[in-house]
Amino acid sequence: MPPMAAEGSPGGRRRPRLVSVPVDPDRVGSDVQGADAPGTGSPTTGPDAAQDSRGQGPAVIDCDRLSDVDEWGRSQHMRDILARLYDPIYERWFRVEWEGFDKIPREGGALMVANHAGAIPADAPSIMHGIERELGRPVYGLADQMFKKVPLVNLAWSRLGGVQAHPDNAYRLLREQQQLVMDFPEGSNGPGKTYGERYQLRRFGRGGFVQIAMRAGVPIVPLAIVGSEETMPILAKLPAVAKLLGLPYAPITANMALLGPLGALVSFPAKLRIRVLDPVQLDVLPDQPRYSRSRIMDTSEAIRHAIQHELYDMLRHRRSVWFG
Amino acid sequence: MGKRVLVTGLGTFWGGRVAQTLEQNPDVDVIIGLDTGEPTVALERTEYVRTDESYSILSRIVRATQVDTIIHTFLVVDSSQTSNRRMHETNVIGTMNLFAAASQPESKVCNVVVKSSTLVYGSTFADPVWFGEDSRRPAIPRHPVERSLLEVEGYVRDYAQDNPDVSVCLLRFSNVLGEDIVTPITRALQLPLVPSIFGFDPRVQFVHETDVIRAIMFVLEHDLDGTFNVAGDGLLPWSEVAALCHKRLAPLPPVGRGLAGAVLSRLGVDLPPELIDLLTYGRGVDNRRLTGAGFDYRYTSAGAVRAFAEGARLRSTFGDQRAYRYERDVEQFFRHSPAVVRDRP
How far apart are CA A31 and CA B16, in angstroms? Predict the structure, then answer.
């Protein structure tokens, strides 16, 4: 039985040693210097560390970064490289044309929502590239979490501005960082449509995008995009294969039928037209713990209707799939 | 009257550091350190008590010493160094006994600080980029160390609820780096090739060991109550962490990475499953609750990596010179012999 547990003398007898008292050099070593001049030179990790835990401490010790990968995984450098490669595709292959581009805010946060189509959707990269090129501000694209599971895909997607569609992520991007965020509320049900169902908008999830915009106090900018359905039309789906591979859908596309295996990656050169609708201001107080469910669903439905209506209008005026 | 502090896990890196720091504080009268093994750092006036891993003598100690503050650092967060059973004994049973002792009627405890880990959030593909203290983890815990820490936190919450007048502070520390601490991550970063998962380059966050001690002292000093993440500012890709340490990556296959980790562990490269998860999906925690309470971090995540890299370089030149051996008789002599003059001016 160790004696000191029972012996515990009543407090104050033993004077605790102050920092300024000379310390046996062989016992504490380098900590002594640190105690004399806290914060100068290389900080030691000794007991002096806790002396000034607030304010007036030395500067924060940082390190020059070797990459420009931000907290979301996006790298402007990678984005610039991609822009050089993608610009010819954007200009010559899809010949993207915008209407009402000025409605996209040049500063401040905004949540852009659009219809989503094509087995490998051409709309997301085109919208992101177009806005980044014209406005010079980053666009973060919210994507299904399944992207994060696939090796290399997750890496490419996140370096190029993709962020997992989690409410906390969206809130931080929109509210705290006032960024432009791109969302496809149909989720994977949009691109997973067969060609026969083209331009029929799917359910807009559970209206989560409206809730986020309400909490973040940012406008919603709806976009209607025509042409993406024809870039990679889905002829049939293989549910068994999808289940086996853990994918939301496993399509057989017209591109595959025409080009063979190459068709799995190459889109048809359909003309992409993007129309920006009037931004929707949600006049509710931001940062509320809850919002009226009916209000959320009504707004979500209204936005879905607006986009659907606009799609019909654009299709009515489209003379050719390839030339617009 | 000054504080009477009980530190669990005196022989661990954190317990030793915390006790050393407390010794500098004139407001602390008594420091009692518990551990299964001997102290690993030089201590001036801390009283060391050897105990078994589940602290069966704890209630006697709490009664006999009338401690008012408990700092619970004796939690295993590195699953590669202990068996699951031992980890359960230490973490869950140890914490249970600790709180049983602290909640007996004679107890004078009014301040409890528990050192947990951000491992409780896990690391999966469904995670948000930043976890807040109140974020729910999206996936059920898969690894024993995560489950055991969550159980510990359950006891902490129960105790805090049952004893509303005691300020209970739960600190969740991110991956710790620094000149001295050894963790699975520091071991991985000192291998000739740093393991990574092919096709993934997650962002990870670090906290410097100095900031860990400072955070513990800060919450003690300010009587903070509640749960706080402790992590440096910023996230870095794992590839960049390796590059800052001047190391190359050795990617493991993404399919069967758990198996690859298990095989490597057999071969002596410690890659516990929770580290494999971290190297696949990364983890970020929001540190603003603690900074909001007035705490200033000394190191960012990148700064902690740099400090670690510099420390590793120094060690590669000098070797580890900090070896310390506890001599029971000598320590007893200095603490209790009447021959020692203690009130030197």
Answer: 14
Give the list of residues 6+ apart from residue B306 with CB closer than 8 angstroms, or none: A61, A63, B244
Q: Is the dihedral of CA B260, B263, B269, B270 positive or negative?
A: positive
* Short-list A92, A120, A90, A95, CA closest to A254: A120
**What's this model's pTM, rounded to 2 decimal places?**
0.84
| Interface residue B26 vs chain A (CB under 8 A) | yes
Q: Give the nearest partner residue to B295 out of A18, A53, A63, using CB atoms.
A: A53
φ, ψ for residue B259 (rounded to 5)? -65, -45
> Is A177 touching B (CB cutoff 8 A)?
no
Segment A76-94 shows an average pLDDT of: 95
* B146 close to B274: Cβ distance less than 8 angstroms: yes
Find, among B40, B2, B39, the residue nearest to B322 by Cα: B40
Cα distances (angstroms) measured from residue B322 to each of B318, B325, B331: 11, 10, 18
Distance, in angstroms, between B144 CA and closest chain A CA?
Answer: 23
Q: Note the pLDDT of residue B139.
A: 85
Best of A18, A31, A63, A164 to substitute, by most chain B Cβ atoms within 10 angstroms, is: A63
Scan residues 137-156 of A and list those with Cβ closer than 8 Å to B. Answer: 145-146, 148-155
pLDDT level of residue B335 (50, 70, 90 thresholds):
confident
Using alpha carbons only, give the angle B106, B32, B52 rounded to the nearest 5 degrees: 85
ipTM here: 0.86
**DSSP code for B131:** B
Q: Under 8 Å CB-to-CB from A11, ≥6 apart: which residues? A: B1, B2, B4, B29, B30
For chain B, positions 82-141, list CB contacts with chain A under 8 A.
125-130, 132, 135
Distance CA B175, CA B234 (A): 13
User: H or E element: which one contains B266?
Assistant: helix B257-266
Q: How far apart are CA A17 and CA A289, in angstroms?
A: 51
Contact A275, A223 (CB under 8 A): yes
DSSP A22-87: ---HHHHTTHHHHHHSTTSSSPP-SGGGGTT-SSS-PPPB----SS-B-TTS-BHHHHHHHHHHHH
Cα separation, B269 vs A35, in Å, equals 37
- Residue B176, pLDDT > 60, answer yes
Give CA A294 to chain center in angstroms: 27
CA angle B111, B114, B119 (to 5 degrees): 160
Cβ of A259: how many Cβ atoms within 10 Å? Answer: 14
Query: What are the DSSP E strand ranges found in B214-272?
Result: 226-230, 236-237, 248-252
A240 interface with B at CB cutoff 8 Å = no
Residue to test with chain B: of A7, A62, A75, A177, most B Cβ within 10 A: A62
Q: How far apart are CA B79 and CA B87, in angstroms?
A: 7
Q: In whole angstroms, what is the distance from residue B71 CA to residue B111 CA?
A: 8
Average pLDDT over residues B306-310: 93
Residue of A286, A314, A153 whose CA lies nearest to A216 = A286
